Amino acid sequence: EPAKPVSRGAFIVVEGLDRAGKSTQVKKLCDRLYAEGHNVKAIGFPDRTSPIGKMISSYLKCQTEMDDHAIHLLFTTNRWEKAQWVKDQIAHGYTLICDRYYYSGIVYSAAKRLPSLSLAWARQPEVGLPRPDRVMFLDLDPEAAVKRGGYGDEKYEKREMQERVRALFLGLLGRGGEESSDLFVVDAGVGVEDVAGSIWGEVGKVVNAVEGGKWLELGS
Ligand code: 2DT
Ligand code: MG
What is the percent of the chain with per-residue pLDDT over 90, rounded to a whole number? Predict the structure, then answer.
């Protein structure tokens, strides 16, 4: 089926803790959108392919150490280096499904609980990045994540860290402002098809509204 002409593509982010099923759900969502005639591309952060992405990857694999503020700013820069590309794709009618974005960015850094690195501090360098049309938060109890086979060996894949990250994510909802209105919580503790169904129930509506010209401006 040829893709329909659209006003612009939608920018959808999928967020969640490690093992919440983000990669699986991003793939299923892209396949469904494509099958229904949308132009769609999957992207994700950190994008480990750029020179900065390689530094981030090395940090996450515990091969290099870095100051917590410095690594935060590298994650942010890794988004800025793709910001114009994101805008261009959307303007050309591609709907982007993005695995993690600045919501992970601020929450993982703030979960380190440094006196000098608050959520507000972490948010500042992200200001001005393309704002998504919707952020699907795949919520999973770290207890359930452990039952799914547990974590890998990367930097933040520790139970205590995951608990703090989850609390901060859920805290964003009550904080008011952009983050709380962007986030849509999905229970990721049920079966793969049920999670996909909940995601589709929201994203299908948003994508059709955006592509149909009902939500004109991409925010920032
Ligand atoms: P993946 O497991 O999805 O590859 O993520 N992270 C991610 C941050 O600390 N800041 C960020 O801005 C982003 C995008 C979350 C690798 C880890 O990196 C964390 C998990
Ligand atoms: Mg991971």
Answer: 89
Query: Near ion ligand 2, which residues have CB within 5 Å?
Result: 18
Judge if the beta carbon of residue 108 lies within 6 A of ligand 1: yes
Task: List for the chain the helix, strand, coil content (%; round to 5).
Answer: 50, 15, 35
Helix segments in 17-132, DSSP class H: 22-35, 51-60, 68-91, 102-110, 119-123
Distance from the alpha carbon of residue 96 to the mean position of ligand 2, in angstroms:
20
In this prediction, residue 3 carries a pLDDT of 64
Distance 37 CA to ligand 1 centre (A): 31
What is the identity of the amino acid at 92?
H
How would you classify residue 158: left for phi > 0, otherwise alpha for psi between -120 and 50, otherwise beta?
A: beta
Q: Which residue has the tokens 């974590």?
A: 151
**Band of pLDDT at residue 2, cut at 50, 70 and 90:** low
- CA-closest candidate to residue 122, choices 102, 148, 142, 140: 102
Rounded to whole angstroms, how far apart are CA atoms 117 and 203?
33
